[in-house]
Amino acid sequence: MATGVSTRCLLTLSKRGFSSKADKNVAFLGLGNMGGYMAANLVKKGFNVRGYDPSKDALTAAAKNGISGANSIAAAVDGVDVVVSILPSNKVVLDAYLGKDGVVKHATKGALLIDSSTVDPNVPKQIFPVATENGVNFIDAPVSGGVMGAQNATLAFMAGGRKDDFTRSLPMLQAMGAKHFHCGDVGSGQVAKLTNNMLMGITGMATAECMNMGIKMGLDPQVLLDVLNNSSARSWSTEVYCPVPGLVPTAPSSRNYDGGFKNELMVKDLELASGMALGIRSPIPLGAVATQLYRIVQSRGYGQKDFSFVFQLLKEEAEKK
To answer: How many CA atoms lie within 13 A of 118 on its CB side?
Structure first.
């Protein structure tokens, strides 16, 4: 892929309750753990939302939040002003946008397409020229903040695409999130997201490793956490996402590692980030170690648990010795 993005990332803070009269009708593709809440927040802010998901259960749940259902992508996007999607993989995104039943073929001329999936940066670069040729506008806008961020409309959006398209997307992004960054050309949002998630995986791994060591040496877990949070090692992983159960009540570790960012998704994102780094020959020794460690967690059958479950893996290994 191309070398790094040179355009400065621009931050826009949320201004709640505003929506463009021209863009009131939205199709939402992907109504799972993230998309269901995101679509519901659009409804709360006055948008008319028509959703599509291959899961009937997801459509039923969405209907309870005021989202009308469609039986295909083509039916969902017919006549709408904006399409928002959050889908699980490169292939699913490409099929959804460029397939025979896809968004680009069936979207209204002039519509704005916003893909919030986390994929290889080359995926939006494939979609953008086809979308442009067909008279529709496209940005990639992956998110950070997890299920809680989606539920509470506090997500951070990292967008790549034309500045005019980003500006047009803001009423929708502001309905679903608290911070919105324009990171540059198409694909830049994915670069920012994958960079963020690799660092999140590395710091999460390091926090689990070092807290396990300190606890094994006899330190009280709460005392250790207090020291870390008031010292140079303080981070999001210690303050918000502590991997040790019972220390931060809102962290997934205190909910049996459920309801967070699944380990299998961390593996997916680290593999995407690793491929991106390989393409530009950027050394990622810590990223490579993190990828392997989370793969081990997944191979042990814990892919559905939050990625901070890595603490339990390290704890178990230490207890064996």
So the answer is: 25
